[in-house]
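tool=predict chain=A
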Amino acid sequence: MTAIDDALVRLRTAAPAPMKAGLTGVLAGQLGSSGVGFAALGGPLEDRWHQALTELEQCIRPLGDSMPVLNEGGVYAGSWIESTGTINTEVLSRLAPRTAKETFALFARHQRGDGLIPYKVTADGPGFSQIQIVTPLARSVWNHYELHRGTEDADHGWLRLMYQAMVRYDAWLATNRDTRGTGCVEAFCTFDTGHDLSPRFWFAPERCLHGDAAQCDPEAALVPYLAPDLTANVACQRRYLAKIAGELGEDADSWEDKARASVKALFEQCYDEQDGTFYDVDSQGNRVRVVSDVLMRVLASEIGDAEFFAVALQRYILNTAHFLSHYGFTSVSISDPRFDGDHTRNSWAGPVNFLTQIRAPHAFEHHGRSAELATVTRPLLGALALADRFPQCIDPWSGSAGFTTAYSPAILWLLDTVERSCGIEPRPDGTLSFTSLAPTRLDHGAAADATAYSRTVAGAHYELAADDHQTLVCRDAQEHMRFPRGWRVITDRGGLPTQVIGMTTSAARGTLSAGGKTLELSLDPNERVELVDLEVSARHTPGYTPPRAG
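tool=predict ok
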């Protein structure tokens, strides 16, 4: 038998993933219903994947009188809106939709009477001392709704609950966080963006005055900032509120108008055309010229077109003189003299943070740049496969694990990355993604000889087995597709191929076999081939940007 055959046998004969991971709580049943499983021949990744599930379950527990919800994990007791309640739960939605639904709703149910959504909820209740928003909540809510549309995990009643809460919050931000009348959203303190220890906020208070997010300390010389990441968050939030409004029969056009106004303010106030990036503007009217991951946060909020994103990739994101370390994206430009890569503490002054890594895929996928994402992900996947814990921070130079343990963004990043690399990913648009980048080329002993992944979708059980050369996809234990390493095949909900995407740094050639037909293709990096009845109907590509040094 081949390595692919052996991996498939290992997957099929192993105990179900919930049992193998020792799950006993609410995650077990939801994961079992998803049919998700993973096996690897050689290397540590199979054990680390199951350990991720074990530790993920430890992060799912009630807060006060709530249903079981996702907690941030590590030293963070509770759920934070910047992470747990948005991007973490957006990823969790593919594994545990009921828990995701409850986690989103937690923040709506604890909304303050004046419209402020808590920045965190713990067993002691909600916190309101800062806003701490990063990933747009409306985007995460909408993607969950689309992914589970028509099920009890995404009903109209829940969507309306979330919509009404976000409408009130938008009004609160407009009233309380535009004191300078620019149309931007203002940061009053360091924790408004969760940038602990970042030189971005030197001489700013950590929290808002008297622990109230509506108050800015008048004795703080430089705040309020016009904050590009907060403004971009609201711009994106409003675009997705338009989608939700349309779904609920509400006025969508006004949200689109408000979104355009936010984008206009963002570029007029915070964009530096010469530097090609965004800066805060302090209360004295000066730009805070710290080149930080603010740019990545803005891009993940779907700001800018394909050309804008391509320039940002070349100049900053994939530049090893700025944000691209060998083990992930740094939190401050490596070239900034204030960069501090100390990964042993909760710091946004330089080290790689797993929150940045789990947020990053959205921007890349939004612009069709999957090949670049795959390129820069591989070393970090190898490092986390070999790590002794799931940390918040990683050393950009060595990949060694740093601050805290059992941290849900790191746990979910590994689960997400395995699925994006060599698994089966259900997507909010109703399609399925099958990717052939088996982790056979990881360094330092982390590589596997072959892997196999499973998932049940719409009553059909799919399995994807891959080695260093080929991929086999089975549907209900029967061969369904074959294609070479370096491709991603997109299918409709019934498993019919509709697109093929190039995922490697050079042309990937081979044959797609499906439904008794074959198709020979050569795909450049990021090239997307549209299929109709397994025949090419269109081809297009955004190009490819390799990493660069300076």
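The chain has 15 helices and 28 strands. Residues 55-423 form a domain with the Glycosyltransferase fold (CATH 1.50.10.10).
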